Structure formats: structure tokens, C-alpha cells
Amino acid sequence: MVVALLFLGLLFAQVGSASDQKTQTQTAADSAAVAATHQFRDATVLRAAATIPWQVRPLFAPLTAWEPDLTAAACAAAQRNWGENPHEGAGLGCTDVSLSSTGDGVRVEVLAPPGQVVDGPADVAAQRARASVVSRVTFVRCPQFAQPKAAALAHWLVDRVAERLGRASGCFTPVDGINLGILDTWPFPPARAAIGPPEEILDAVRESFRIEIID
Predict the structure, then answer these.
(1) What φ, ψ does residue 126 adopt, rounded to 5°?
(2) Which of 27, 82, 135, 165 ranks highest by number of CB atoms within 10 Å?
(3) Alpha-carbon dihedral of residues 32, 160, 52, 205, nearest 10 degrees?
(4) pLDDT tens for residues 98-133?
(5) What are the DSSP calls for 195-211, one per residue?
(6) Most trustworthy range by pLDDT among 12-16, 79-83, 193-197
(7) In whole angstroms, how far apart are CA 66 and each of 39, 47, 106, 136, 160?
(8) Helix H segments across the chain?
(9) Does residue 139 sit in helix, strand or coil?
């Protein structure tokens, strides 16, 4: 009876370890997906800004040269999350984190280092817990600006970003089109003053989209 109880105790400990490993692997995957999707959203906004057809486009050129590294962002976030939890054995490597695009976000899979976990559950193989997650960029609201020209440009950008994500925002109105047409007839200094700092417009466009985990 003592031997049987010891065996059951060891089994329960292994199952508990598997559950902990699975939970920690899932949180690492969630962190990786959110970090990568943030970069994906920011890159989508900048790529839309690079297509601005009006004469204020040069203001955005220095900001649109940034290229994201989604895999590096995912790996860094997963490792940071993994390091914040106590673990035995090896750390989480970048080769244990895989990423693929879904069009409007990313799918991330994380395979935990070998640990004291039992085989059997679908999310554990060869004593390595695994987790996957899908996150996406979703439209939230149209940005608001006191300056009509800045609002028109921000609304145009939001529409372009939404299109790239396979959605529609409906932010850009006929009045916005009139304002941008007027803006393009002005000399550069007044046009630049009318829209304000380009960073503020880009920040407002980013805030019009949120990151959400869907699977």
C-alpha cells in the first residue's frame, strides 16, 4: 500500500508539473504573439504612410524606413516571459519559437525545453509542453483631431491600414477628401502646419487598432 501511495503521489506530481509547464508555455506563446502583432500593426501603419499621395508625404519618409523583425520580437517576448517564471533545466531558445503570418496577425507556436512532464496529453510530447496562439489586429475607432486636415489624413491612413488587414473602417469621408484636396494645393509650410507633427498622426492611427488574442 505504501508503494502504491508513493507511486500515485509521483504520478500526481508529474501531472501537476505537466500542467504548470503547459500554463507557462502558453503564457510565453501569448506574450510572443502580442509582441509580434504589435510590430506587425506598426509596420502596416508605416507602409500605408509611405503611400501618401499628397505633398506632405516627405514628412513621413524618415519614419517609414523602419522594417519589423516579427520573429525576433516574438522570441524576445517569449524568453522574457519564460525567464520571469521558475524553471528547471534549459532555457527557452529562439528555435523553440516559430511564427507564421495569418494576414491580419500572426500565429505563434512555442515548444518548451525538456522538463519533468508526463507524456500523454495532446499538448505534451517527449516531455516537452507545447502551446500555440493566434493574435490579430482589429479596428477600434476613428481617430479624432481638432485640425480638419490632420483628421482627414489620419482617417485616410486608417482606411488604408484596414484594407491591408482585409477589413473596412469607414473613417474616410467625402469631407476628408475635400480637406486633403485643399491641403495639396497649399505651399509646403502651411500644409505641414495644418497637419501638425506626423508622429502624432501615426500614433493616433496605431491607437485606432488593438491587438487581440483569438485562439
Answers:
(1) 55, 40
(2) 135
(3) -60
(4) 999 999 999 999 998 876 554 444 455 556 888 999
(5) H--HHHHHHHHHHTEEE
(6) 193-197
(7) 10, 9, 19, 21, 18
(8) 2-49, 57-60, 70-83, 148-164, 174-183, 188-195, 198-207
(9) strand
